[in-house]
Specification:
This protein has 2 helices and 2 strands; from the N terminus they run H-E-E-H. The protein has about 80 residues and is of the alpha+beta class. A hairpin with a 6-residue loop joins strand 1 and strand 2.
Length: about 80
């Protein structure tokens, strides 16, 4: 790859980095499940939409499983040690 190819890529990367906005915190509500105690909350009644297709598909699949009876709202969520 010569200089002519690398320069536009470098400009594009620098532009992308310069225009990245800091993450905005979405509304949240964190509860202690055993006691129901609210641990943290912010704008908990505001509408909030998942930001990506992956999140939308996860929600869709989860609700399909609940509808079919294979999951409940109390079903445990398994997370690998690496994901933690």
């Amino acid at each position: 790859m010569g200089k002519n190819f690398c320069r536009p890529i470098l400009i594009l990367v620098l532009f992308a980095l310069a225009t990245i906005a800091p993450a905005q915190a979405a509304p949240h509500l964190i509860l202690e499940l055993k006691t129901g105690k609210v641990l943290s909350r912010s704008q908990e009644f505001d509408r909030w939409y998942p930001a990506s297709l992956t999140k939308l598909m996860t929600v869709y699949t989860t609700f399909e499983e609940i509808k079919s009876g294979r999951l409940t709202l109390l079903s445990p969520v398994r997370v690998s040690a690496r994901a933690l």
